[in-house]
Every structure is written in structure tokens, then in C-alpha cells.
Amino acid sequence: MTFLHILWFKNIMFWKVSTKRDVGMVIRNLGSFIVFGSFAIGAFYFSNFITAYLLENVRIGLFLFHRFIGMLLFVFFITINLGNMVVSFSTLYRTPEVDFLLTSPVSYLNIFVIKFLDNFFYSSGTLFMVGFSLLLGYGFYFNLPWHFYILMMFGVLIPFMFLAACIAVIVLLLLMKLASVVNFRLLVGGIVLFYIAQIYFYFQVSSPVNMVREVMKYYPYVDLYFGTLDPTAVKVLPNFWVSEIMYFYVTKNFTAVTGYTSLLVLSTLGLFIFTLAIADGIFYSTWITSLSIKSLTVKSLQLKNSIFSFGRPSFFSPQVEVMLKKEFWQFIREPSQWIHFAVMMALLLIFLSSVSTLNIKLQTPELKAVVYLVVFIFNIFLINSLALRFGFPMMSLEGSAFWTIRSTPITAAKVYWIKFAIVVIFLVALSIIISWLSNIPYLYMQKVTGEQPWIYSFIEPSDTVKILSYFSMIVTPLITITLVSLNFGLGSVYSNFIEKNPIRIASSQGATMTFLLSVVYLVFLLALYYFPATMLFTAEMKDLQPDWHMLRIVFFAICIPSAAIIAISHVVGLHSLKRDY
User: Fold this and answer.
1) Mind listing the pLDDT tens digit for each residue in 406-421?
2) For labeling, which of 120, 148, 311, 574 is most exposed (least CB within 10 Å)?
3) Can you give the pLDDT at residue 13?
4) What distance in Å separates the CA atoms of residue 346 and residue 35, rounded to the nearest whole number?
């Protein structure tokens, strides 16, 4: 057991104490403490403000409020599930450490458990902090007792996240088992389509627009429990159980709280036992299968006639050509990279297909503003997620071979700008497409349904709302450049040339701090956008003349801090390349 204990503590340590006590390390640790603490405080006030705003200003009622929480938890559950699946594939089947441990006198099940828990705890520290801060803001608004937070953190949030991780690993093990008889790429494509269909049907069955329409028929009695509106299929999902626990805790129905909490905890425990049973039977055989997948991957990269092959002529200079092609093949050769990218893009397409046909006819000005702000900030959040996941690790992925770049005629700064250009060009182009698609309901004539599904009409957005959409489409690329600069620049500052797993690099302490800084920037944008969005939708509904001066102020209030963040990020990123590696 001594060996397992050493391995356990080696893997779950997130905060590492450096033996090098230099000033730079002290400053980075102090900066991390300030950022984490500030974010926790900000998340508390943000959660408290959003709860108060939706219940007091928009007046959506307790039932709708908690149903929206349930929908967010569904997205959160799927994100954790997919993230654990991709990370587990890398840590269970792609790391030399597992190859070594399988030759040691340790059971296959113990190795599986250690790596599985390693994945979960390594990537969950920030989520626990964020979740606890948000729960504090929520509970403070309702003046909930201290035992609410203990129950939610240890009896609800942790089992909820652990359940998602267990499902992810079960799916991965079965996927790898099938990979011995079915083409691996075909299986990956099938999994992606399955998750796309799952998310699509969930939001089709539990449409937030239909839910709002049905509940608002009983206005002002919107705090009543409208459980009959919940589809039967949704009631078996863990996110529904969590939203019910929160609703019944607020309404003091502790019998229902106990029932749903027990259901969640027992389901998680039972699924974990089931996961161990499957892993005990097929983990080693699936690891053997992964060896053949490795060989197929290496063989597939031996393409000599590809447009990205190094022997093909290019319009770029030799240095730029080599760097571009190297980045392409470095991305393609790692399955965890392109699989994760494909999944994230699929989820993005589902979201855009939903918001591009959003029904906006039966909403109040306040609710229309809330919907617009949520869609806008979620677009930016998706872009930031891509920048963090694929932009932050790019310098670190050079690995121990980074010294060769330092000794070649190409400068480190040129390598930095080429890598940055790859990420920023793609994400800026993507942000423009996302911004346009999400603003379709506010730019073009839409067919919307009325009280009955067979009754519909056509509505033309007003010029006031169109200007807000054009404004969003203008500032979105600037915001994207800012977020990519922040993630890429700090990714150079916190570069780790020892870690080969890009997902773990994107989940490190430096990446977490970068993510929190970017979230602070997003909250700043949300606060700025609140005033013009509310003003313009109110002007549209009441046929008033909007104050265009406010829109100009908001534009400069976004541009100036964004330019400062871009400049500072690149200055510190380029300066970090001069240190001795």
C-alpha cells in the first residue's frame, strides 16, 4: 500500500511548492492568491445579483428560475462528462506512466482507480471553488442556513460531478472495447453524433421558450410548483434532481430534499461500483487495444502527397512554412486534440442552431435583454474556452525540444507570433460567424408561433435592435483578440515543457488563473452591455428614442481596457521567452 499512497499523493497535488525560492515565484504565487480570492468574491456578488435581478426585476418566479438552473446544470454535466472522457483517454491509454505501472506488481484495477481519481481531482479544484462561491451568493439571497452549503457541496455538487465522470469513463471503456472490432474513427464519430442528438433532444423536449410561455399564463402566481409541465424523460436526469433539491430547500420541503439527495448519492455510488466492475474486467484488454490504435495513428501520418506535407511548395517563407506545417501535424497526431476539438465544435453548432431560431415575440423588454445578454456572453465564453483549451498550451507543447528553437536562426519572438496568428485568425473568423448566426433573430424577419403551435406570424426586428446586433458583431472580434492574447500570453508565462498532455496543461494552476482573469473580463463586459441592451429593448417596445451617446461610451469602455489587456499579455508573454529553460 505504500507504493499506492506515494502514487496517490504524487498525482492529486494541484498546488505544488517549488524548491526554487526566487522573487518571480513569490510574485506569481501572490498573484494567484489575489486572482483566486478576487474571483471568489466576484462570483459571490455576481450570483447574488443575478438571483435578485431575475426574481425581483424580471419576476420569472422560483419555478422558472430553478428550471433555468437545471438547464445550465445539464450543459455543465455534459461538459464535465466530455472533458473527463477526453482526459481519461489521454491519461489511461497515452501516458508512459501507465505503461510503466502496468509492468509493476500492482493490480490493473488499482492503476485504473488511481488515474481515474487523479483526473477527477486534478480538474475539479477550480470548479469546487467556483461552485461554492456561486452557492454562497445564491444562499445569501435566500438567507439559507449553514447546513445548506455543506449539503450542496458534499452531498450534491461532488456526487453530481463524480457521476458525470463515471459515465464518461464507462463510455470510454466500452468505446475502447469496441475499437478492437470497429474502426476507431467511426466510433468517435458515432459518439460525437450521439452527444449532439442527446443535447438536441433535451432542449427540444424541455424548451425554455415553451416553459416560459406556459408558466407566464399564471402570472403573478409564478412561484407555484408547476411540476406537471416537466417532461417525464427529463425527470430521470441528475441535473433535474439538483434543481429540485435547490427549489425544495428554498420552499422548505425537506422531505423532497432528502429524497432527491439520497437518489443522487446512491446513483453515484452505484455507478462508481459499476465502473470498477467494468474496469476490472476490460481495462487491461482495452489498453492492449490502444496500442494498435497508436500504430494506426502513426501510420496514418505518413502522408507524402498531402497539401501539408513538408515536401510541397508553399507561398510562405521557409521558416513560416515549417512552423505552420509543424503546428498542423502536431495537432493531428494527438487524438485527444482533434477529438476534443470536434466535440466542442459540435456543441457549438447545436447552440447556434438553437439561438438562430429563437422565438422573441412573447417576451417583456427585461426578459428580451436578459436573453440577449446570455446569448452574447455565452458566445464569448465558448470562444474563450477554445482559446484556453488550444491556445494556452501551444508554447508548452514544444516540450523538451524547445531548446532547438532557441538555437536555430528563427527567433523565439517569431515562433511566438506565428503560433499566436494561427489561433487568433481561426478564432476571430469563428467569432464573426458565431456573432452573425446568434444575431439572426434580431436582424431578419422571423416566423414565430403564438399561443397555439398552429398559429404563427412574421415579425420584423426594429432598427433599434438591429443597431445593437451590428454593434455586437463589431466588438466581438475585438473581444476575441483580447481573450486569445490573454490565454496565449499567459500560456507562455506559465509554460510547462515537461508535461506532454495538452489537456492537463490547460487544467494547470496557471491555466486556472488565466481562466479566472478571463471570466472577470467577461463579467466586466456583461456589466457594460446591461445598460445599452436594456435601454434599446425598452425603446423598441415602448417606441422611445434611444440614447445613442450611451452606446458610444460603452464602445470606448470596451476598446480601451481590451487594448491594454492585449498589450500587457503580449509583453509578458514575449518577455517570458527570454528566461533560461
Assistant:
1) 666 777 788 888 888 8
2) 311
3) 40
4) 32
